[in-house]
Design goal:
single chain; alpha+beta; Herpes Virus-1; PH-domain like; 2 domains; about 25% helix; elongated; ZFY21 protein; ZFYVE21_C_sf; zinc ion binding
């Protein structure tokens, strides 16, 4: 187990919303909470003994039952069972659920790339994968790197085979920029898919496609 994973031990607990995975260490827990709210934040209906107040498990805002009636899985916040969410959050959570069911497994299984750090003209063959706690990109070769997902600033997917109509392209690499803890400067890494075997090329392309999907979800969550 790597250092980044040892810090994130979790336990299964039962809450009013159902089973949920919760970090054992308080410092790693989400600051998710609920403030007092007298009216529905969607339709402005006043809460009383008849109109009950509910909160969206994703954004934490208060709604009436009509405006917060959907129950959708929320793995991002470690809920095991589907939980109540507002309509806007439910759409986003559905997209994330698709990602968790498909692309996440690809990222965690990893793929092989030639990795170039900064402006160096030398590259190293490394296996790149998402850590088990989904917080780090882990690169293993002769060297070892752990890049915290939240510190990634930009991700550019490199493709080839572009046609005027935009079809028949495939991912062949990516360039990402990230901040090293304790520094404000951006570090750049370039990933190029290995060309040794056709199976490696296909696996690398699938991993890059999953990374592209993950990046879009990451940017959407930052905009919320």
């Amino acid at each position: 187990m790597s250092g980044c994973e040892a810090r994130d031990a979790k336990k299964l607990v039962r809450s009013p919303s159902g089973l949920r995975m919760v970090p054992e260490h308080r410092s790693a827990r989400s600051p998710f909470g609920l403030d007092e709210c007298p009216r529905c934040m969607q339709c402005d209906t006043k809460f009383d003994f008849i109109t009950r107040k509910h909160h969206c498990r994703r954004c934490g805002k208060c709604f009436c039952d009509k405006c917060c009636s959907k129950k959708v899985p929320l793995p991002r916040m470690c809920f095991v069972d589907p939980v109540r969410q507002c309509a806007e959050c439910a759409l986003i959570s559905q997209k994330e659920t698709e990602f968790y069911d498909k692309q996440l497994k690809v990222l965690m299984n990893g793929a092989t790339f030639f990795v170039t750090l900064g402006t160096s003209d030398k590259s190293e063959l490394m296996v790149c994968r998402l850590s088990n706690n989904q917080r780090y990109l882990v690169l293993d070769g002769d060297g070892h790197y752990e890049i915290e997902i939240t510190q990634i600033s930009t991700v550019q997917i490199l493709t080839e085979g572009f046609t005027p109509g935009g079809g028949n392209t495939r991912a062949i690499g990516m360039i990402l920029q990230y901040k090293v803890p304790g520094s404000e400067e951006l570090t750049q890494m370039k990933f190029t898919a290995s060309q040794d075997f056709s199976c490696n090329k296909k696996l690398s392309a699938s991993w890059l496609a999953a990374m592209h999907k993950a990046t879009k979800l990451l940017y959407e969550s930052r905009d919320q």
